[in-house]
Amino acid sequence: MRYPSRVKLVDVGPRDGLQNEKQTVPAAVKIELVHRLQAAGLREIEVTSFVSPKWVPQMGDNAEVMAGITRQPGVRYSVLTPNMRGFESALASRPDEIVVFAAASEAFSQRNINCSIAESIERFAPVVEAARAAGIYVRGAMSCTVGCPYEGEIAPERVGYLAGLMKGIGVQHVGVADTIGVGTPIKVQRALEATLAHFALDDVSGHFHDTYGQALVNTLASLEMGVWQFDTSVAGLGGCPYAKGATGNVATEDVVYMLQGMGIETGIDLDALIDAGQYISDFLGRPTQSRVAKALLAKREASACDAV
Ligand code: HMG
Ligand code: MG
Fold first, then answer.
1. Whose alpha carbon is nearest atom 12 of ligand 1?
2. Ligand 2 centre from 238 Cα, in Å?
3. Is the dihedral of CA 77, 83, 89, 91 positive or negative?
4. 256 lines ligand 1 (CB under 6 A)
5. Which of 52, 78, 145, 231 could join 191 via S-S bond, C-beta 3.0 to 4.6 A?
């Protein structure tokens, strides 16, 4: 078995993480988090979403956050756009990439974006066309590819069906998401296989929430298939307001540590990443969800004590 020699991580913490927070996170804190992530070596950051502020008030400062970022050459900034209204608002913020998001489960599609899977594809088609005409890269997120909070287990055929629809409207890359973190390695591999029937290996990524503690092993199972792009979230932030009980994404720190140990290149400085995670965890007033960050912070503290 050959693992990829290089992996690209997209930190989705500012969007997936902070969309789910009860407390208000000021735009200045989100901007600082993005700055710290890019300084740590992240080359793509999912910054915010242009969704209805009535549905997700936490992302209501989308334009302010995008305008406040000092862009670093070589870093891509992506945003979620659920419809033409969102895309038109996003355009002024000059994203490098937009994300249209659908679900493999009908019930989740209704709860999350208030329409059926078929209707969502109809809505996305003009968004994809307009984005590509403007030279903006289009990623698709596919939610509930192994399990749904309302429908239970999801068959790989339904993932394949959605991937085919995404491909049909011109989506360039798809993320296979385990929204509620129920997946286990073989199930995740089946969802990826169903997707790979429609998209090339280089155009597929994994997006694993860690609710059941399976996200790291699901990442490894994806690497075994040659998948080399993943969405991860600093400090393990994350969740979806319409997927009750789902916890954060796999922590970026944990994935970086695993990849470093396997000799796989990420371009990320783990120490600087841990500092970025500490910054947002301190603001939120709770410990990081990253096991690696906890371990390395404890080690730092112990060596600081030894030095005194
Ligand atoms: P709707 O209510 O059906 O939309 O919502 P509508 O077209 O009927 O419009 C209703 C009102 O919303 C109107 O305003 C529109 O102008 C406004 P009013 O006339 O009542 O004043 N509106 C908007 N405002 C701002 N930006 C927009 C926009 N669109 C309409 N883009 C809609 C449909 C899709 C908008 C809504 O359901 C929505 O915003 N849903 C977003 C839910 C969401 O953000 N979920 C989390 C992100 S997905 C996720 O986390 C999963 C992922 O991480 C992968 C995984 O883990 O699975 C990606
Ligand atoms: Mg998610």
1. 52
2. 7
3. positive
4. no
5. 145
Phi, psi of 248 (to 5 degrees): -70, 175
Reply yes or no on whether 115 is catalytic. Answer: no
* CB-count exposure of residue 245 (10 Å: 0-12, 13-18, 19+): exposed
Domain boundary assignment for the chain: 8-307
Atom of ligand 1 nearest to the CA of 246: 56
| N-terminal to C-terminal alpha carbon distance within the chain | 47
Give distance in angstroms: CA of 95 to centre of ligand 2.
19
Ligand closest to Cα of 19 equals 1
243-281 pLDDT tens trace: 887 899 999 999 999 999 999 999 999 999 999 999 999
In which band, very low, low, confident or very high, does the pLDDT at 241 lie, cut at 50, 70 and 90?
Answer: confident
List the beta bridge partners of residue 78: 46, 97
Q: Which residue has the tokens 């929430």?
A: 209
Give the span between the Cα atoms of 281 and 210, in whole angstroms.
Answer: 17
pLDDT, residue 265, reads: 98
- Exactly one of 144, 148, 240, 305 is catalytic; name it: 240
195 lines ligand 1 (CB under 6 A): no
